[in-house]
Design goal:
The chain is α/β, with parallel strands linked by helices. The protein has three domains: 163 residues, Chitobiase, domain 2, CATH 3.30.379; 314 residues, Glycosidases (TIM Barrel, Alpha-Beta Barrel); 168 residues, no CATH class. The chain is 43% helix and 14% strand. The chain has 26 helices and 18 strands. The strands form three sheets. Strands 8, 9, 10, 11, 12, 13, 14, 15 and 16 form a nine-stranded mixed beta sheet that branches. The chain is globular and about 80 Å long.
Length: 676
Amino acid sequence: MILTRRKSRGLLVSLAVLVGLAATLHGQENTLNLMPQPAQVTLSQGRLPIDVNFRIGLAGYEEPRLQSAAERLITRLAAKTGIPLSDRLATDASQATLEIECDHAGEAVQSLKEDESYTLEVGVRQAHLKAPTPVGVLRGMETFLELVDLDATGFGAPAVEIRDRPRFAWRGLMLDVSRHWMPVEVVKRTLDGMAAVKLNVFHWHLSDDQGFRVESKRFPKLDQMGSDGHYYTQEQVKEVIAYARDRGIRVVPEFDMPGHTTSWFVGYPELASGPGPYQIERRFGVFDPVMDPTRDEVYRFIDAFIEEMAVLFPDEYFHVGGDEVNGRQWKSNARIQAYMQEHGLRSTADLQTSFSERVVEMVERHGKKPIGWDEVLHPGLPQNVVVQSWRGPRSLAAAAHQGYMTILSAGYYLDLMEPAVRHYRVDPLEGAAAGLTAEEKARILGGEACMWVEYADPTNLDSRIWPRLAAIAERLWSPEEVKDVDLMYRRLAVVNRELGFWGLTQQSNRFVMLERLMEMNSPHSLEVLDSILEPVKGYSREMTGHYTSFTPLNRLVDATPPESNAAREFTALAANWKTNEAELRKRLTAWRESAADLAPMMKQNALLQEDAPLAKNVAALATAGLQALDYLETGQHAPAAWVTEQLGMLDGAAKPHAELLIMIVPSIRRLVEAAR
């Protein structure tokens, strides 16, 4: 039987061997569009055809999760190829196109210890996937699906042998659903995307000043009064957890305390350090309301709440927040100040540490391991707290040095609109962590991207997460030496396209938003213009002060992706203008014409009026680029007056307009200066 024969060849390597595997992706192997890149890849000759006869066979250990995963793979393969595939599970696994063998059951509740390794061998007649656990099978299935492509012979997968396992055990995404509500279907499609790139932790930020998002049967006013009616029932929470488990993803809840708790106080003002009444916060930022850490009844409430949520969420970890407490309510409360003096607490940081110690004890008593943002790292913090670093890699290194388990989020903030390469170059074991001992580095569990949703709603959320999250996923899964940026971007484009097959909307919803902005006019010109724009970076949008949770996210900045591929490509072309002159002229002409087409229409459009300066600047930039190419082509020096005029125009065009940036400005500047 084929299973026995392959087993005798020893394709399933031990964990000890896999730990030491290095990437062997050289030459031909780099043509594979796999993301994350596997630990070891060996290409062979030939292809495995994918046609209407495709079958999956399950061998070895079986469970319903494997059955549903196989059915899901068939559905997704049909979506990718357009080949009708249904009822394609083979009764005899040895006769299947893809034979899957799982060795044994995984953990009842998936944890950091779960074995995610797998081996995948694709031949010209059959593919064989083998893994110790169902989660390893899930990871291998994603790789197999990525291998399938179209060539002159039809759909197929290249003959290849892959041995793979993750570099870090914690590879997550934090999704805030408090500032803007995200329905269950949005959460599910986010989980689908995470599974596709082999992430394994969904950190669910469920409470903040703008909303409390989970039903509490013990304290019903939390969701009834603190959510505007937008919350997950406990049955929906169970549904999401089961959905995530089917995809090999853990669900870690976060209930932020003692700050970011205004929504708690709407129904239970007695928990607060200042007098009520309270209302759900509509603005964004850091606010004064904070829990009162001096009263026993507050701790009794928290203890009962944690007990209820610990039963609802089966994961071993429980996040208690702890970030951005400004301490103003504590400082202005005479009773709290007297308590601090009586107990020798010199600062509000000391008071928060005292609070954290008691909450951590509750979390542990209810069978969970506590996590907190890096503000909780103060002398006296219990050693069993996992510290999540968001303010910088130094806090990660400091926590690991002091004996704490740590998770890196600094550098992985998707809401800051940074390009994929910025995230890709952040490594949990580099920077400040590089000087740690081996024992200290072992305390770094991995990393977690963060998606805060002040400026995201269900329509544009996917475009704020994808495809950049795939670059972070690779950094956390693949060997450390996988760092080629050009290869990353090539594969990222493929991932972005394929995520659309699985129901992600980062591309489709962008066109919907552009069509809405253009009403009955063709969105083509706006799409061309928008292709070289990016939203402002960092916390720039917060500086306007105009946003609340009710502000419509229906402007051009809300439709524009965080990273312009067109501008990045133009930069590469302009670096060698002699070779690429024709293509440069083609693109510059298209941008100039699109800007001209849009100019009159924008004046009559309430949502696009603010973008008229962008169109004007793009037209001027494109004209300057074409003129610079004229000078360069003829070998004439551009007149000094022209250069001065263009540089002044470039300075103006480089400034944000309507919270958008024109990303071809630096390349046009280089062309103008070259023509000098």
